[in-house]
Amino acid sequence: QVQLVESGGGSVQAGGSLRLSCGVSGYAYYRNCMAWFRRAPGKQREAVALIYDAAVMTWHSDSVKGRFAISQDSAKNTVDLQMDSLKPEDTAMYYCAAKLGTGCGLLDTYNYWGQGTQVTVS
C-alpha cells in the first residue's frame, strides 16, 4: 500500500526558506511520477513541481521556477521540495502526490496523496 507523509512545513518570513519532505513507502520511483501540489485558501489546487523516474525529468511551475526545487533522496526514500525566496503568495497547504506510470502532466490522475503540510509566509 502506498503511503505518503509530508513534513517540514511551518511559518517563515518573506524571503526565507523551508524544505518540505515527503516520506514514501510502498511505491517505486522507476518510471513513475511524483509531485508537489498546493492549495491556498479560496483558490484551486495547483501543481508546483513534478518529478519523473527518480529525477530523469523534473518540472516546476512558472510561479515557483528559480525559487523551488524538487528532488528525490534514495537513501532517505523521500521526495523533497526546497523552497527559497518565499513570498506571502506561497502560503498554502502543500501536498505530496504520486501516480503510477507516465503522464506526469495529467494532474487529475494522481491517485495517492499525503495529508498535507501547512506553509505560511508573512
Annotate the secondary structure layout:
Blueprint: E1 3-7, E2 10-12, E3 18-25, E4 33-39, E5 46-52, E6 57-60, E7 68-73, E8 78-83, E9 92-99, E10 112-113, E11 117-121
Parallel strand pairs: 2-11
Antiparallel strand pairs: 1-3, 3-8, 4-5, 4-9, 5-6, 7-8, 9-10, 9-11
Account of the protein in words:
The chain is mainly beta and 122 residues long. It has no helices and eleven strands. The chain has strands spanning 3-7, 10-12, 18-25, 33-39, 46-52, 57-60, 68-73, 78-83, 92-99, 112-113, 117-121. 32% of the residues are buried.
The whole-angstrom Rg is 13 Å
SSE string, helices as H and strands as E: EEEEEEEEEEE
Structural class: mainly beta
Q: What's the pLDDT, averaged over the residues?
A: 93
Count of strand segments: 11
Give the biggest beta sheet: 7 strands, mixed
What is the beta-strand fraction? Answer: over 45%
Distance between the termini: 37 Å
Q: Outline, from the CA principal axes?
A: globular
Classify the helix fraction into a percent range: under 10%
Quick summary:
The chain is mainly beta and 122 residues long. 0% of the residues lie in helices and 50% in strands.
